[in-house]
Design brief:
With 152 residues, the chain is mainly α. It folds into 2 domains: 4-38, no CATH class; 43-149, no CATH class. The chain is built from 5 helices and 2 strands; from the N terminus they run E-E-H-H-H-H-H. A hairpin with a 6-residue loop joins strand 1 (4-6) and strand 2. The structure holds zinc ion (ZN). Zinc ion binds next to loops.
């Protein structure tokens, strides 16, 4: 029901902006506080970030392979990974409500692990190029997204 809020203690219908229940006096702001706190980390946004990062990176990698550009070496792939992670981080940071820099960070860790698992690269160079750099790109993207949303 729009414009009203039922009391969790006695079910009395109160105005949305009421601080205390008019019947039993229970604190109604507690619920809204919990909503705000729960908006800090959203699993679905985090998974969405993984989908964008891993999807763009893998899709572009396959496309480059089909075009024969993979002969140019790993540099284009690294650049694509950076763009994919920054984009994923930005989207999550921009559209997930609240200050949610943790979401793109977790997304990046999972997407990096996925990419490494798929490629089978676990050496130090692969971890630095394919892991830490995209992770930082995701954080930068997430930070820009938060800035665009105005939470920083
Ligand atoms: Zn009440």
């Amino acid at each position: 029901m729009v414009g009203s809020r039922s009391c969790a203690a006695c079910d009395e219908i109160n105005d949305t902006n009421a601080k205390f229940c008019r019947k039993c006096g229970a604190d109604l702001t507690e619920t809204s506080y919990q909503w705000a706190a729960g908006g800090g980390f959203d699993v679905w946004w985090m998974l969405g970030g993984v989908a964008v990062m891993f999807g763009v990176q893998t899709g572009a990698g396959i496309l480059l392979g089909l075009m024969g550009i993979s002969r140019l070496g790993t540099l284009p792939l690294v650049l694509i990974a950076l763009v994919a992670f920054a984009l994923g981080g930005f989207l999550v940071g921009r559209f997930s409500k609240g200050k949610t820099i943790l979401e793109p960070a977790v997304s990046a860790v999972i997407a990096v692990a996925l990419a490494m698992f798929v490629k089978g690269h676990f050496n130090l160079l692969a971890i630095v190029i394919g892991g830490i750099l995209p992770f930082l790109a995701a954080l930068a993207g997430g930070w820009l997204g938060e800035k665009a949303q105005g939470t920083i």
